[in-house]
Amino acid sequence: MPRSVLRTAIAMTLVATLAGCGSGQGTTAEPLEIWIRQAPDSASAKTAKRLADAFTKASGVPTKVVALFDDFETKLQQQAAQKNLPDIVINDTAQIGTMQQQGWLREVDKNALAGGAKLADLAWKAAQAGNGKYYGVPFSAQAFALIVRKDWREKVGLKPPQTWDELAKLAKAFTDDDPDGNGQDDTAGLVAPAGTKRGYASWYASSLIYANGGDFLTATGPGKFAPAVSDPKTVEAVKWLQDQFCTAKTVNPGAVSNDTTVTHEVFEKGQGGIYLVGPYVLARFVKSIGTEKLEVVPVPKGPSGGPGTLGEGENVYMMAGSDNEDGQKRFAEFSVSPEGQRIGMNKDADGVIVRLPVNSEVDMAAERQDPRWKVFQDAYRDAVYSPPVPNWTPIRQTSADAINAVWADCSADVKAAMDTLSGKIAQELQAQKAS
Questions:
Q1: What domains, with CATH codes, occur in the chain?
Q2: Which of 21, 161, 176, 415 has its Cβ near the most Cβ atoms within 10 Å?
Q3: Is-contact 61 335, C-beta < 8 A?
Q4: pTM of the predicted model, to two decimals?
């Protein structure tokens, strides 16, 4: 090829390439970096990658998914210190206050978000910070229920529990009556992530607190709260659980030190038979334990209140400082679209990152054939999200420390401990100017 023709061909190629980059298809030199709180190489991380790939195919915006589980928030802090936050973070709804206070999040105009009007009002509340503004886009929701070893329940001859007394009776039978039939004293009734890491003790207790009509805080005015942990209904729920740990001894050994990663394995290994948990592990347990051995039962109403369980999920957070704000918005819109929600739901398979869909146009029953999901969906109607204080994380952690202590020390007086906790929460609310 003559040199003049070659130069012309190269120039035309460069022009075409540059034109393609600015063609409005969303292509950028740097991929949109998406962090998600999932274990690397897990089924959930692979679902997140499929979601990102589908977005890239639809928009032309390249993506890079980073899946992290251990010390997720610490690593975000490190990135913030380096002024190098990812573009997108998919993380717990309860983290919104912490991240917003540190200036990490872009405010969201829900009315300017394509598809925003199709998202559940309850889910939008979990994207609202203490100042009443929105700093996340609802992506996934969940409520809690009991995953129970059905084969064990049938072995001990009891019906699915509908009251706390029946729940305690079933837990005791699972502990004492050799439900797995191996002739050994090696089973527990309840399995519980009751450690203090990331506030798990209060996270676990919260569904029973709400089911009894209790709470951690009570609203006293717009953006203002008072402690509610010393309320008799809250104390009753924590005391009921202390009785399971200390008197009936129906909780798996070591629970006061465990997080969810360990507790999932305890349940899978047949060391306990009742797990109060969200729907995200259902497909995993069906695969590892067997579908015919499992049932999902609503959390029973407590003697003084209910119904109600913890409500939570994940938001898509558009992080401050991004060079690709348009790409951030387009990814958020795709993730909550019917297509994005269906990819995240992953049907009945393991690897769910959308637990309950937040888009009203998505029919969960059409996507998932397992009827046990409906128990979680029904529970969501009465779900209680963490209150919109400026920063929920220190309140949850302080509560976890106090609740864990009364489960670990059987001589502890629950009412006295909750009174002390109430004082600490009051101080924290004052510090946050939310009292």
A1: 30-142+312-380 (3.40.190.10), 145-310+392-431 (3.40.190.10)
A2: 161
A3: no
A4: 0.86
